[in-house]
Amino acid sequence: MDDLLSSLSGVAVTAHPNNPHAEHPRFALYKAKSSGSSQHERRRKILEARREARYDLIMHLRCIEEENAESSEFSDDNMECEQERRCYFRPKKYHNFLMLSEWLVDVPEDFASSYFALPCPVGKRSLVVSARGRTRAYAKSGVKVTQFPSLLPGGNRHTYNKGYALLDCIWSETNKTYYILDLIVWLNQSIMECETMFRFEWLKSRMLEEIPEAAQVSRLNPYRFEHVPYYDCSPETLRSLIHEPLPFSVPLDGVLFYHKESHYTHGPTPLVGWLKAYMFPEILDDSCVIKLMMEVSSSKNKNTKKTKNKEMEVSLENQMESSATELIDGC
């Protein structure tokens, strides 16, 4: 069934423009009309709207707190009724909660200065919620996948009343690690309205300074939590990102590109782009790769010219010395 679904994903019909579950428009067998201009226009409108108004998160946070306050204990009289009710009604409070990407189709002119690159390991996207002594992981669909203790705020019985946290992660089954891409809430404080760099730096400082033990396996932390470092989008950095050792021990799935002014929003957004590593030369040729090649070529040409000029100078000096010697001998 999984093979069938994956084979059909490339031809899926969706209202989500540049859906990463479908083929990239530039690599599709059927070359549809380019949606790059529409992606650029949608980016522009979102950024303009963001500068004029603030995103309202009250309802989302209320839902989170209500869910965290639910008791997991039921009386014997109500258990059968509760199980019957759940068969017909399964609320998905975290459905479409994660911020999702689009294929990076239209590379803006200010790409190098306006975006961060975030390498992504192979794994499954996961929303991790720690609260009231439990840590739960949800799939993108909002379905709860698993529950366990952790060292995150409110994530185990010793930190029951220490608030809650929400993290955007990738779960790696290979090494039993949650790789944290983004921080949504920390100690009851939402940072969804903060810009990308603030969220990334806040995540880095919390994980390294407050709970560095979360990167190690223990009785209260059966799975590792590691933050994924971010990089600027200069040609040199992108080249090293692809060709040098990765910041994690599992294979690279692709690279997410976050606009520096983006807030954390729910669902797909044109402010977060996605590319597989093999797509870099095709998509980033004009803005990054070719620019880097030109810089390297220019540097080589300059060095070659300097070498040739130096050789010519040495040759002229030798000729002058030879002529002077002949004149002296003739005298």
From TrEMBL:
Superkingdom, natural source: Eukaryota
The keyword Transport is annotated on this UniProt entry: yes
Residues of the Snurportin-1 N-terminal domain: 24-62
GO terms for MF: RNA binding
Key words of the record: Cytoplasm, Nucleus, RNA-binding, Transport
Domain Snurportin-1 m3G cap-binding: 98-276
UniProt cross-references to CDD domains, sorted A to Z: Snurportin-1_C
Chief location of this protein within or outside the cell: cytoplasm
InterPro entries listed in its UniProt record: Snurportin-1 (IPR017336), Snurportin-1_N (IPR024721), Snurportin1_C (IPR047857)
Designated name of the protein: Snurportin-1
Organism expressing this protein natively: Homarus americanus
